[in-house]
User: Fold this.
Amino acid sequence: MSAYTVKNLKEVDNQGVHFGLDPSELELRMARVPLECENSGVSYLKLGPGFRSTYGHTHNVQEEIFVLLTGSGRIKLDDDSVELTPWTAVRVAPTTMRALEAGPDGAELIAIGAPNTGPGDGNNTIGWWQD
Assistant:
């Protein structure tokens, strides 16, 4: 393996379509494998205006950090909701349930996860974020 790998995150395959999500609502570009990450992972997320992920997820081992780049939104963390503005960073412990919602102009985020656990560490709960 090379000492470094270079990829444009917006050119990594959009995995959202494999989950049946409309690309205008959510782009999910997971770069752990394309970047050959050994100890972490990174993803690019683009949420359309007002899009809310109704499913939440936790991890068995992996901690995540979400950084809002543009737009606005909220992240629901267990029973709390945190407003996101550009450059807000939120660290989420593995067992904390989380989901994202974009503001009226949409949202672009980077998600960083560590350690690199490979597939099978995430646990989804469909319909978790309901008002």
Observations:
- The chain has one domain: 26-125.
- The chain has a mean pLDDT of 95.
- The two ends are 47 Å apart (CA to CA).
- The chain is about 0% helix and 45% strand.
